């Protein structure tokens, strides 16, 4: 197997590109794909203060590394979710990376700041753990960006993540969600600008990037995510990809090119109805936002 | 050879020599879902693995629904 660029021995095949790469040209390909995503979707501008949502996993640490190498002013935000040893290990990976790169890591611990963690918060709110986790993360991202004066929050959602979300939204024709599935969401009504610069790279490439760069990331899956629907969608798409390389890329990127615009109106209609949360001031459809309700329920249950 | 799998962590013995692609096929593992790692190095699909090698099949699929 030889590198498509230099014909030296390759370390990895990227079947959807019908290409193999040596270490040097694999890293260059990753940087080029991130640059292309940023430029094509107007994700970042030079000089932007960027906040990278860091989980300690491969995608977010690879993204942080790539943005620093590309010259962006990028700090990390790590949220302590209180998921036992998993959170301990993921936090250690995030801190080790920040120290190694001499980068700034902002930390928010849910238990310390809000009085609950994901296991007991999900139980109190009667939400699936991934749903409670997503709700809490989105709230903390928004708040940290606002308080820290960051121009944009970037997340490590990769091609596989976006294709799986799209697959789920299409299976159930969740048109409002389809309208929101954009690689960039502009700042609006209390929400910071958000961007996903890894949408042109798969998660196998992100794992390989970390191995090649010597980035220590948490390999173990979150114990609360096991068996969730999203992972099932990824497995189904990988079955298709195995026999037809490029399927995931075409599915997601052709959605962006040919269909996404048709659903944007539905998401806009939902957003226009937002008011400020009567507790924290964050945008919400009415009254108290879902995060403040989750916090209140969890605190009551923990006290009981 | 010793093959280390994750989530949950376990080890299996497979007789070498065998190519990476054949190893994954024998274990019924989709190439899209793992990296094959020997030491600190990624092993490409066409590489041959010897009987005395030790490799890790590292899963790359991750993430919750949020």
Your description of this structure?
The complex is a heterodimer of chains A (304) and B (66). Chain A is of the alpha/beta class and 304 residues long. Chain A contains 13 helices and ten strands. In chain A, a hairpin with a 6-residue loop joins strand 9 and strand 10. In chain A, helix 5 crosses helix 13. The N and C termini of chain A lie far apart (62 Å). In chain B, 12% of the residues lie in helices and 38% in strands. Chain B has one helix and seven strands. In chain B, the strands form two sheets. A five-stranded mixed sheet of chain B has the order 2-1-7-4-5, with no helix packed on it. A two-stranded antiparallel sheet of chain B has the order 3-6. Chain B is globular. The mean pLDDT of chain B is 91.
Q: Can you tag this structure with a few keywords?
A:
heterodimer; A: 304 residues; alpha/beta; Rossmann fold; 6-stranded mixed β-sheet; two-stranded antiparallel ribbon; 10 strands; globular; B: 66 residues; mainly beta; Ubiquitin-like (UB roll); 1 helix; 7 strands
User: Helical residue percent of chain A?
Assistant: 40-55%
Q: Which homologous superfamily in CATH is the superfamily of chain B?
A: Beta-grasp domain
Tell me the series of helices and strands of chain A, N- to C-terminal: EEHEHEHEHHHEHHEEHHHHEEH
Share in helix of chain B = 10-25%
Straight-line N-to-C gap of chain B: 39 Å
Proportion of beta-strand residues of chain A: 5-15%
Oligomer classification: heterodimer
Q: Could you give the count of β-strands of chain A?
A: 10
Query: How is the CATH topology of chain B named?
Result: Ubiquitin-like (UB roll)
Q: Give me the Rg of chain A, rounded.
A: 19 Å
Number of helices of chain A: 13
Q: What is the molecular shape of chain A?
A: globular
Q: Main β-sheet of chain A: number of strands, strand sense, barrel status?
A: 6 strands, mixed
Question: How are helices and strands ordered from N to C of chain B?
Answer: EEEHEEEE
CATH class of chain A: Alpha Beta
Tally of DSSP β-strands of chain B: 7
Poorly predicted runs of 5 or more residues of chain A: none
């Amino acid at each position: 197997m030889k590198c498509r660029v230099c014909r030296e021995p390759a370390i990895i095949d990227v079947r959807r590109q019908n290409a193999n790469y040596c270490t040097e040209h694999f890293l260059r390909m990753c940087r080029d794909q991130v640059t292309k995503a940023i430029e094509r979707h107007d994700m970042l501008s030079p000089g932007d203060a960027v906040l990278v949502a860091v989980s300690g996993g491969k995608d977010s640490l690879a993204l942080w590394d790539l943005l620093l190498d590309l010259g962006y002013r990028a700090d990390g935000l790590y949220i302590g979710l209180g998921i036992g040893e998993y959170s301990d290990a993921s936090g250690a990976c995030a801190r080790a990376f920040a120290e190694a790169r001499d980068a700034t890591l902002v930390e928010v611990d849910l238990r310390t700041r809000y009085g609950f963690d994901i296991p007991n918060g999900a139980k109190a709110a009667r939400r699936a753990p991934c749903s409670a986790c997503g709700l809490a993360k989105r709230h903390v991202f928004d708040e940290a960006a606002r308080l820290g004066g960051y121009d944009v929050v970037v997340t490590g959602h990769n091609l596989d993540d976006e294709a799986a979300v799209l697959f789920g939204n299409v299976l159930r024709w969740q048109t409002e969600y389809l309208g929101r599935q954009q690689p960039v969401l502009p700042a609006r009504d209390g929400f910071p600008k958000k961007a996903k610069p890894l949408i042109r790279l798969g998660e196998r490439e992100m794992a390989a990037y970390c191995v090649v760069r010597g980035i220590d990331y948490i390999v173990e899956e979150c114990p609360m995510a096991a068996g969730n629907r999203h992972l099932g969608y990824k497995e189904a798409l990988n079955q298709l990809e195995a026999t037809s390389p490029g399927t995931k890329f075409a599915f997601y990127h052709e959605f962006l090119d040919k269909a996404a615009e048709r659903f944007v109106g539905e998401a806009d209609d939902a957003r226009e109805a937002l008011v400020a949360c009567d507790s924290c001031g964050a945008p919400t459809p009415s009254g108290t936002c879902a995060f403040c309700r989750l916090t209140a329920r969890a605190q009551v249950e923990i006290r009981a | 050879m010793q093959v280390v799998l994750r989530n949950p962590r376990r080890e299996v013995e497979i007789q070498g020599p065998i190519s990476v692609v054949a190893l994954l096929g024998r274990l019924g593992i989709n190439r899209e879902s793992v990296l094959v790692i020997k030491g600190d190095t990624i092993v490409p699909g066409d590489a041959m693995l010897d009987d005395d090698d030790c490799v890790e099949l590292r899963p790359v699929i991750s993430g919750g629904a949020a």
